Amino acid sequence: MANTLRQYLKHLTHRKLLVTYPVVAVAIGLGLYMERVESGRAVSFHNKSHLFYKEPSSSENLNYDAELYAFGKRLGEDFDPQILRLALTHKSHIEAETQRRRSLGVSDADLNTDQHNGLLLKAGRTFVSSYLLRHLQAAFPAFPKEGISSLNGYLMSDDALSVVSFHLGVKDLILCQEYPPSETTLADTFLAIVAALNGDAVRERFIRDFLVTQLCGKNVYEIWNPADPKKLVTEILLATRKSAPESRLLRKTAVNTLEANFNVGIYCDQRLIGYGSGETATIAENSAFVDVLRRMFRLDDSRSPLQFPIEVESPDPIHARLQARE
Amino acid sequence: MTSSGPILKSGYLKAPLYNGVGRFVCQLQRLTLKFCKEHGGSRGVRDFIEQDLLNFARRNPGVVIDFIEQDLLNFARRNPGVVMYVKPRRHRSPVLKAEFLNGEHHWLSLHSMDREEVHRWIELMRTKSGEQMVRLRKQWRNYPLKQEKLNLLPISSRSYLPNKRISEYWKKMFLVKEAFPLAQSRDLSIAMISRVHPVLGLLSEKRY
User: Fold this and answer.
1) ipTM rounded to 2 decimals
2) Residue of A69, A179, A197, A215 to mutate, interface with B, max B Cβ within 10 Å
3) Is residue B141 part of a domain?
4) β-pairing, B28-35 with A261-268?
5) Are residues A33 and A152 in the same domain?
């Protein structure tokens, strides 16, 4: 009925109404358009999905088992279907189901209220975080602890995790109250999926292939930006029993123009340990100290790209050594 | 296709989720074939379903293909790697809908296509990344921008550069007399060349 009415109105809007009652026609047209926008059917020229989050039309009759099977196959992992289903079930789904059954007066005796991913989620979070720490330490051996932990924090953030989770295609598989799932839900699902995998080695490879690769093309100093590089350099130098750094103006050019350029070098024990340039001497000095840090942490621009399959120390070195001996 | 037109957006080549850095994941997530069981326009799709679809599904267990038809359900049961539906719609044109892991879906009309064509389009969908089609931009260019020309004109018009080759090249590129006041400093100008020009930049960095 509503559909017919809409078709009729649409027809009127286009033909007669527009001539006789333009204002009414425009109002109806706007109403129809708003309805389309709300239902996600409005047509935008470029990249619809970013503007209107549209539910896939086949999601009404998704074959959930098939989707779960395909999910594992696609990622090249063998999941236990029961555990995978558990990992994708959020607490809100179970609560809503209980509520619904109660309101319908149906018994919820067969509904196990513990059948959600709460435990997997916790286990996953611990595992992912500990592996990331070990991997990052192996990948950036000269990086200080604060840097490693902030990189770890970045990869463990909902922002980073939800992007990975979304691109694994869990959006339609997650059982939860909200659609589309929020960033937190997506991130939690990723952690639960990691825990649902079979075996630590498999989990580690999964994290490396999907999560650690998010560091590709990222500037480490955008993620961890030491507030006062000069102070940090001084601390590190003094801790290694060297003298405090001295900054000297190496060269300057086009002073008093728009494109003034200063070049400052940092010296320690009469050796040049880094240099940088900028439009004022202060900016140049700051960038010189950042350059020193880069060289100290072996993360300068000439560094070779990150290698992903690297030797990562196992969590318990003694255990690993014993295993190797066996 | 013009490069400046509004039809295609431009962008750089990229892979969703750095696909392939860690491991390769087929980006096609779901494939729905809608067709008519009687109409001639769906002939190729019907042929494809009868002859190719099961092979396709067997080879690509990661892609869920929806099947509703009874006969094919049996096939699907025999092949646990593939679960299938096909959506028959009476007297409507056949359609392919491919859904990708990045949330995009691509819709394609298969009207009056033969089996071979259907097969090729599906293969295309299987190998696509699902990203919006863009006109690819390159990281390099073989012409200076206007701003760069303005900045570099003083050098071009005077044989400033100690390197003969660069000077010759520069003169050829801008056969203009000195039209702008001198740059503030020669060092700066050379620094500019090395910054802005992909070829000369390399040369000048090497020589000086």
Assistant:
1) 0.72
2) A69
3) no
4) unpaired
5) no
